[in-house]
Amino acid sequence: MIFRPFYYFDLGCAAYLFGCGTLGKCVVVDARADDVEAYTAFATAKNMRITHVIDTHIHADHRSGGLELARRIGADYCLHESADVKLPFTPLRDGQQIGLGNTRVTVLHTPGHSPESICLVATDLRRGPAPWFVLTGDTLFVGAVGRPDLAGQAQENAERLYSSIHKKLLTLPADVEIYPGHFSGSVCGTGLSGKPSSTLAFERRWNLMLSLERKAFIAALADVPPKPEDMERILASNRGLTEETHV
Fold it and tell me: CA of 229: how far to CAs of 135, 174, 235, in Å?
């Protein structure tokens, strides 16, 4: 498997490109609008074709480059089927698998940060059938979890987030690596580590949010940082509600 993270330290964001080097198929996850050419350049350098472009959720802190990238290269632009957008996209379902040669991606619907949030479990079939890593979007960070208030209904979303983490993510093998959508510098959660990756076992041991019972977890998520600057305009753009969207 070829795996390439793209880290953006201005907002503590991460995007990812990974896939099968043998058959030359790959996916880009959480692409930023200001770096679309970097993804295509890397894929070309590795003789890979981007077949899918996936956003793990509707981003509130930066403009997505997902649809623009997909249009440029003729790939599928993918969101969870529940996404409330006015953009053309390929719907993803919980449990759906995407084949990329020797790389397999399994979709987990993990609502909480937002209703449409998903995580992506990656398996390298040349290593074996066990999952290797999971891209956790804004559901689980290193040392923290996603904030539940940006989509409204903060308490209800906190309850959903607790269930998504404990019933979906923490049922994966303990040695699975996690690569979240943000690290320190982001306002999409509280107490994010500056370390951009971890394992589920490490987070079980050291992420204090994962040790809390449901009620305490929900109460702790009432303490959130200020909302992202210009959030409403960014959300409108990423939902396809403004003329500036992905032109």
Answer: 25, 36, 11
Ranges of H-type helices in the chain:
36-45, 66-73, 154-167, 200-206, 214-220, 231-238
Q: Residue 180 has which token pair?
A: 């979240």
Q: Which among 180, 170, 183, 164 is positioned nearest to 114, based on CA atoms? A: 164
- CA 197 to chain CA centroid, Å, is 13
CATH numbers and ranges of domains, the chain: 2-226 (3.60.15.10)
Amino acid identity, position 157? N
Helix 36-45 vs helix 66-73: crossing angle, to nearest 10 = 40
Which token pair is 183?
A: 């690290």
Percent of the chain with pLDDT over 90: 88
Distance separating alpha carbons of residues 157 and 222, to the nearest angstrom: 11
CA distance 30 to 33: 10
Determine the Cα–Cα distance for residues 88 and 5; give it in Å rounded to an integer.
Answer: 26
pLDDT score for 242: 79
Of 142, 147, 163, 148, the residue nearest 207 (C-alpha): 142
User: pLDDT per residue over 129-165, tens digit each?
Assistant: 999 999 999 999 999 999 999 888 899 999 999 999 9
Per-residue pLDDT at 243 exceeds 70: no
Each residue's pLDDT tens digit, 57-112: 999 999 999 999 999 999 999 999 999 999 999 999 999 999 999 999 999 999 99
Closest CA to 179 of 49, 50, 3, 21: 3
